Structure formats: structure tokens, C-alpha cells
Amino acid sequence: MENRELKIGNWVEQPNTGPQQVTAILNDIQIKTTSGHVDKYCRRIPLSEKWLDMFGCTTHYTGTQKEYETPNPEIIIKVFVYTKETLFFVNYRGTDIKRIEFVHQLQNLWFELTEEELIIEKII
């Protein structure tokens, strides 16, 4: 994972401590997280419906398609479940704009669209 993808507040996975938030980006390879660890081995966290629930999104069905309504009514996350993978697409103001695979990507896109941080509303 390249640190230029990250910003302070993003969630990443650390090998020994689990999900942590980035508190500082020290250089091209090292970050500091809420655990206090300085690490160069953090990994992306795959986006999942559990993470959408933690961000305060609520499930909504439109026919056979599953969607998550977000805290911002202009942003909807569309979920497509296939046999081997789940795909997440961000819909902004009625237009599908981007496929999202990782939690930090959703956080960064959210900030870009709303100029606000996407925060965890409940721990599951």
C-alpha cells in the first residue's frame, strides 16, 4: 500500500493490532496509527457491509438491488453480490461515479464530495 493513498483519519489494518486509524503519515512508507505503532506494513481494509453499517448507512432494497442510504442523502452505495465477490458503487446525485473496494477509498471520496469526514457512528 502506498502512503499517498492515505490521509489522516483513514482506517487501515495492521498485522498485530487489527483496524486502526491513521494519525500521522511520517514518510513514503511509514504511518502512525491510533495504537501508537509506527508501521510500514499496514494493509487496505476491504469494504464490507459491516463497515457501511458502522458508518451509519442503512439498507434499502430497490427490486433485486441492495442499496445503502448514507448519512448524506445525495450519496447512495449500491451493492452487487456475485458468487465470489461483492461490488460496491458510489452513486452521487443519481449517477454511479466510482467503484469502491476499500474503506479508505470510501473515506477519501466522501471527503472529496462533502468536504466532511466520514465517521464511524457505531462499532459492530
Which key phrases capture this entry?
single chain; 124 residues; mainly beta; 2 domains; five-stranded antiparallel beta sheet; four-stranded antiparallel beta sheet; 2 helices; 9 strands; 15% helix
Order of helices and strands, N to C?
Answer: EEEEHEEEEEH
Q: Please report which band the strand proportion falls in: under 5%, 5-15%, 15-25%, 25-35%, 35-45% or over 45%.
A: 35-45%
Radius of gyration over C-alpha positions, nearest whole angstrom:
15 Å
Any idea how many domains? 2
| Overall form | elongated
Give unreliable regions as ranges.
none
The structural class is mainly beta
Distance between the termini: 26 Å
Q: Tell how many strands the DSSP assignment holds.
A: 9
Q: Give the rounded overall mean pLDDT.
A: 90
Summarize the structure.
This protein is mainly beta and 124 residues long. Helices cover 15% and strands 38% of the residues. The protein is elongated.
